[in-house]
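Hi everyone, sorry if this is the wrong subforum. Our group has a chain we'd like a structural model of before ordering constructs, and none of us has done structure prediction before. Sequence below.
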Amino acid sequence: MSVPYNDYPLMKPSEIFQFSCQNCGSCCKKVRQAVMVESLDLFRLARHLQMDIADVAERYTEVGVIAWGAPVLLMKTTEPDDACVFLKDNRCRLHGSDSKPRACRLYPLSVGPDDDLKKFLIFKVSAKKHHYKGRRYRAQEWVAANFRKEDREYVSTEYLAMLDCGKIMRRIPRSREKEVQFLMLRWRYFQFETGQDFMRQFVRNMAALKRELEKLAK
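Answer:
Right subforum, don't worry. Here is the predicted structure as tokens:
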């Protein structure tokens, strides 16, 4: 079993918790460089906003680096509260749509694959006590409602692809980091057409990414 992500408490699937949105906006504030926008999230945002993927990324996200050669996209925030760029009058402009990022849909929980990819582990990620009141849910029911089939397929596929990429990157000189980051951003986020099936494109892109990384490793 994996160590809980970022030391968040691990939950049993049958565990009961309470949650009710208070429309306070607090979960969307003080989130500078905290909300990851995954490949599938960016794709859905672009489709929802009817914008080009690169334009959505430039307008609403910023690049962060979590490890050598591993850039990610993070939701942009606004002053003075470091609030999510989609928060307006304490309301999420994406609320109720399929385009909300996975981190937001699953809040106050999150999920991640175990080491064997046999199941997804569930974590409690919010420490704000006032969120845990109201309707009662089982953790597994919350996850089933907010972590759909395409999400599961995407997370599992990316997890395995990144393991393979990591092995290749160990053979790439650190002096070529900018090239690695360019390839990561290009194939993980931008080489998509929103009118086509996401997963087919993602599988194709991951294969292309590994081929390009292999060229740098030689």
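For your construct planning: Helices lie at 39-49, 53-60, 102-106, 139-146, 149-169, 177-190, 198-217. The CA atoms of residues 10 and 32 lie 25 Å apart.
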